[in-house]
TrEMBL record:
SUPFAM superfamilies: HD-domain/PDEase-like. Gene3D superfamilies: Hypothetical protein af1432 (1.10.3210.10). InterPro entries: HD_domain (IPR006674), OP_Dioxygenase (IPR052567). It holds the Pfam family HD. Residues 34-102 form the HD domain. It comes from the Bacteria. This is HD domain-containing protein.
Amino acid sequence: MELRSVEELMDLLHACRGAWDAPDRSGDPVDLHDHALQTAALLRRSRPADKELQVAGLVHDIGHLLRPGDDAGHAHHAADAVRPLLGERVSRLVRLHVAAKRYLAAVSPEHGLSPQSALTLRRQGGPMTPAEVVAFERDPLAEDAVTLRQADDAAKVMGLNAGVLEDWRTVLELVAARQARLGAMD
């Protein structure tokens, strides 16, 4: 699935209400909707000027909705879905959020993962090898991907009010419009 409009993306994000990272609800304590809002809000607070990073936080887990039960591939499904609408950087950050988890597990084993994230880490390849760490660190988006991952890990608080999805429509429209302008220049 490729998202072609902000309206399609908003519909998908609204569908995340009551959807969980694990189909049997054994995973994280918040649904994908609240997790998305919390992740984006944390990124807005830490990197207020980086709208693309914030949007990547908002959409990073939609792959769980697109292909339920595919923990290993959820980042790829989400990245492929948002690329046409939100651009290459957002897509790459979404794709890299699992690699960033594997990276942090290798270089900072004390970095706390939720029980569900620790479980899925195995399905996603486990901690990076030393060679994978070096390759990841060379990626120009590695630092931003780690920032996204850290927000992802912190955004699992039951009952936290992180605003409403409609608050993000303007930011999504801004990022999509920028991508449309860039695409028209190609």
